[in-house]
């Protein structure tokens, strides 16, 4: 590919059109790929201050700032990218792109194909490797030869790790957070169950639904299942216990319903299925002689961290990566479980400062 085209910005978002074809590793073909991205700060003349932030499953390019055009939610790591924070835009050039297959500006199942219809079920399967390949083209366009740091948590951690393994000469430091080198049966089990909830919604129509009649009930149930895995049992019990609200609903059920509705209003079910499938198929060691052999390719200075109460990405998974890289696992103490990687920004900020010092 080559000859990138910059589209008109929308709000804080900018767009880059990679002329096709983009050929995902598992087959199929995308005639062109649009990447939505945001940046903060200025690229230094030597190009040595660029940081790539990788978002998680339902995140987007809006790392910091308020909600606005193209951003259904305020920045999801605002504490990390701010004056005086670890990623101070006065020092770093911070880049975040919506993932390939997503629904916040980057080409995904809800985007229109060249025939004018939405891709829907025709959208090819993508892997984490494909997603990083698209981001490599973005880095090329922005004139970034090497990232001073690539950081990501959860699904974002997968892309961060893939960068460090696939393109070691382009990653100076790696921050791998609350993620895994290969998906476990538990993770695949919960994600395929979430997918089944979406597919069971009559509106799913094999993935070819109109956006005004999207399978919101199925996506909502998927989010309820997922959200339980994102929080710790102890935290949920301390907050809600068996309390019944005035409307006669269990408080925890009402809370999950609230999150289900919020996601269904801001996220595409087709992207949800596609991205969870990319996570299911994630194995950094595939085709590389196994996980440890793959991790042996990393030359970046690495910081590996997890959340002590994370039941979805338990610390054992980060320990495996830390052991292979010969670094200590840094555990963040938090009651929140997996979502601790988003909520414990002060702790993440401290670790990031240490890595970038
Ligand atoms: C990495 C990423 O990219 S994530 C992308 C960004 N994602 C989002 O912003 C939305 C997804 N949300 C999440 O993932 C998580 O909720 C987080 C981590 C962002 C936020 O977690 P927390 O701040 O702990 O929020 P919490 O889970 O307690 O939920 C609070 C909400 O539940 C609502 N709530 C609490 N109790 C109840 C109840 N009994 N019944 C109904 N609603 C309830 C609150 O009113 C609040 O609503 P609001 O968010 O609309 O203001
Ligand atoms: N709350 C996060 C969890 C996934 O890691 C999200 O919605 O993306």
From TrEMBL:
Chain spans, region Disordered: 1-23
Family statement: Belongs to the AB hydrolase superfamily. MetX family.
PANTHER family reported in the protein's UniProt record: HOMOSERINE O-ACETYLTRANSFERASE
Highest taxon of the lineage: Bacteria
Keywords: Acyltransferase, Amino-acid biosynthesis, Cytoplasm, Methionine biosynthesis, Transferase
Catalytic activity line of the entry: L-homoserine + acetyl-CoA = O-acetyl-L-homoserine + CoA
General function of this protein: Transfers an acetyl group from acetyl-CoA to L-homoserine, forming acetyl-L-homoserine.
Gene Ontology molecular function, alphabetical: homoserine O-acetyltransferase activity
Active site residues per record: 154 (nucleophile), 310, 338
Protein name per UniProt: Homoserine O-acetyltransferase
GO cellular component, one term: cytoplasm
Amino-acid biosynthesis as UniProt keyword: yes
InterPro entries the record matches: AB_hydrolase_1, AB_hydrolase_fold, HAT_MetX-like
Pathway in which the depicted protein is active: Amino-acid biosynthesis; L-methionine biosynthesis via de novo pathway; O-acetyl-L-homoserine from L-homoserine: step 1/1
Principal location listed in the UniProt entry: cytoplasm
Entry EC no(s): 2.3.1.31
One BP term from GO: methionine biosynthetic process
Subunit structure: Homodimer.
Cellular compartments annotated: Cytoplasm
SUPFAM superfamilies: alpha/beta-Hydrolases (SSF53474)
Keyword Acyltransferase: yes
Binding site for substrate: 223, 339
Taxonomic lineage from the root: Bacteria, Bacillati, Actinomycetota, Actinomycetes, Geodermatophilales
Pfam families referenced in this protein's UniProt entry, alphabetically: Abhydrolase_1
Residue span(s) of domain AB hydrolase-1: 49-344
């Amino acid at each position: 590919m080559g000859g990138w085209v910059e589209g008109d910005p929308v709000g804080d978002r900018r767009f880059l059109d990679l002329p096709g074809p983009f050929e995902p590793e598992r087959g199929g073909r995308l005639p062109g790929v649009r990447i939505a991205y945001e940046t903060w700060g200025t690229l230094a003349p030597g190009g040595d201050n660029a940081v790539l932030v990788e978002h998680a499953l339902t995140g987007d390019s809006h790392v910091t700032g308020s909600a606005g055009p193209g951003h259904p939610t305020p920045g999801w790591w605002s504490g990390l990218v701010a004056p005086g924070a670890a990623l101070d835009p006065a020092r770093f050039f911070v880049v975040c792109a919506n993932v390939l297959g997503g629904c916040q500006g980057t080409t995904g199942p809800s985007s229109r194909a060249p025939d004018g219809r939405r891709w829907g079920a025709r959208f090819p399967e993508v892997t984490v490797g494909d997603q990083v390949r698209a981001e490599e083209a973005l880095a090329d366009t922005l004139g970034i030869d090497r990232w001073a740091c690539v950081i990501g948590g959860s699904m974002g951690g997968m892309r961060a790790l893939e960068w460090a393994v696939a393109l070691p000469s382009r990653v100076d430091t790696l921050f791998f957070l609350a993620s895994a080198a290969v998906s476990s049966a538990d993770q695949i089990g919960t994600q395929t169950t979430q997918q089944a909830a979406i597919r069971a919604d009559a509106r799913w129509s094999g993935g070819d639904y109109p956006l005004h009649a999207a399978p919101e009930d199925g996506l909502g149930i998927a989010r309820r299942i997922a959200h339980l895995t994102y929080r710790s049992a102890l935290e949920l019990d301390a907050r809600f216990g068996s309390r019944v609200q005035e409307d006669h609903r269990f408080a925890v059920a009402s809370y999950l319903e609230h999150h289900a509705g919020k996601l269904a209003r801001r996220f595409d079910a087709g992207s949800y299925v596609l991205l969870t499938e990319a996570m299911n198929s994630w194995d950094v060691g595939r085709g590389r002689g196994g996980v440890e052999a793959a991790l042996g390719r990393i030359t970046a200075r690495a910081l590996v961290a997890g959340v002590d109460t994370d039941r979805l990405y338990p610390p054992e998974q980060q320990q495996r990566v830390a052991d292979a890289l010969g670094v200590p696992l840094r555990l963040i103490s938090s009651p929140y479980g997996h979502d601790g990687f988003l909520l414990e920004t002060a702790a993440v900020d401290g670790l990031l400062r240490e890595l970038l010092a």
